[in-house]
Amino acid sequence: MKHVHLATALSVRDGHVLLVASHYPNHPQPLWNLPGGRQQEGELLAQTAVRECFEETGFRAQVRELAYVSESYDRADGVHFVSAAFAVTLDEADAAPGEAREDHVVAVEWVAIDDLASRIVVPVVRDPLLTYLRGQMPQRYAGYADSGITIRWPSDSK
Q1: Using one digit for the tens of pLDDT, what is the confidence trace for 37-56?
Q2: Hey, what CATH topology would domain 2-91+98-146 get?
Q3: Are strands 141-144 and 60-74 parallel, antiparallel or unpaired?
Q4: Could you give the CA distance from residue 34 to residue 86 in angstroms, rounded to a whole number?
C-alpha cells in the first residue's frame, strides 16, 4: 500500500476561509480545498503547509497550531492518506486573492464559512473542516475507511 502525507493551511478571516480550486486530470470540474498538498522528502508537515500555501496562493503563511489530522484510504488505488491541517496566519501584503500561482490551481477565494458545505464537495475534505470550525472535534482527528474519491495529480500524468 502506498502512503501519501498531505498538509493544508487553514486561514480564517472575518467569517471566511481561504480556499483554492484545483483541476485534476480525472475530475471534469475543479475541486475546492484548503491550500495544501503533498509532503516532499525531508520536509516536515508544517513546512509543507507553508510551502504549498505560498505556491498555490502567493500568501506567506506562519503556522499557529495543528488544527486537526484526518486520514483516509482510497481503496480503488490502494493509497493511505494522512492529512494535517494547520491553522495559519497569513502575510496578506504578499498577494491578492484570486491570483492562483500553481498550474493546477484555477482559483483562489475567501469563502464564507456558511458556504463551505456547498463549495467543498469531497466529504473527507469538507466534513473534518466543518466539524473543526464548529468546535465539535475535541480529539482533532477524523478517520475514513474509504475516501470515496480518487485523485490523480497533474504531475502523476506527465
Answers
A1: 999 999 999 999 999 999 99
A2: Nucleoside Triphosphate Pyrophosphohydrolase (3.90.79)
A3: parallel
A4: 10
The answer to whether residue 153 scores a pLDDT higher than 70 is no
Backbone angles phi, psi at 25, to 5 degrees: -55, -30
Query: What does DSSP assign to residue 55?
Result: H
Provide the 10 A C-beta neighbour count for residue 81: 19
- Please identify which residue in the block is written with the cell numbers 484510504: 73
Residues 112, 16 contacting (CB under 8 angstroms): yes
Tell me which residue of 36, 3, 12 sits closest to 125, measured CA to CA.
Answer: 36
Amino acid at 13: R
pLDDT category at 158 given cuts 50, 70, 90 is very low
User: pTM of the full predicted structure?
Assistant: 0.89
What is the mean pLDDT of the segment spanning 72-82?
Answer: 90
For the chain, domain boundaries:
2-91+98-146
